[in-house]
Amino acid sequence: MKMMKKKKKKKKKKQEEEEEEEKKKKKETKTKKKKKEEEEEEDEKEKEKKEKEKKEKEKEKEKEKEKEKKKKKEKEKEKEKEKEEEDEEEEEEEEKKKKEKEKKKTKTDKEKKTKKKKKKKKKKKKKEKEKKKRRRKRRSKKEKFLIE
């Protein structure tokens, strides 16, 4: 009888220890699982943050590119304007030279006058046409630029 009680006690003790061990294991796995989930969450948050930063950087780059494009267009516009002014000055110079040459020629005054008048009219008309063309081009470019 005593032996039986001892055995039972021993068995019971062993069972309790096993249960305790099992509880510990469960608790450990639970904490491990929880820790893993927290780490995954943290990783996910970090990933999202990096993604957001990347997008913002790309936006910034895009803005910078747009600024550069605008600057470039402005420079081109300025160059074009300068070129037009130079062309006009050259035309005026040429006109002056031609006038001087015409004065030097030894033709009758009437012929000179009529030729000069005709040439002047033609040149003025041509100049006006060119100016109008240039203005139209400029306006259309400005409008396009504004539209963009």
Write structural notes for this entry:
This protein is mainly α and 148 residues long. It has a domain at 42-104. The chain has helices spanning 2-104, 109-147. The radius of gyration is 47 Å and the shape is rod-shaped. The model has no long low-confidence stretch (mean pLDDT 89).
Provide a count of the helices: 2
By DSSP, the count of extended strands is 0
Largest sheet: none
Q: Which stretches are poorly predicted, pLDDT < 50 over at least 5 residues? A: none
> What is the alpha-carbon Rg in Å?
47 Å
> What gross morphology would you assign?
rod-shaped
Q: Structural class of the secondary structure composition?
A: mainly alpha
- Assembly annotation: single chain
Distance between the termini: 103 Å
Strand content: under 5%
Determine the mean pLDDT: 89
Explain briefly what this protein structure is.
Residues 1-13, 24-35, 98-142 have a biased composition (Basic residues). This protein is an all-alpha fold.
List strands and helices in order, with pairings:
Elements: H1 2-104, H2 109-147
Biased composition (Basic residues): 1-13, 24-35, 98-142
Biased composition (Basic and acidic residues): 46-67
Region (Disordered): 1-148
Give short descriptive properties of this protein:
single chain, 148 residues, mainly alpha, 2 helices
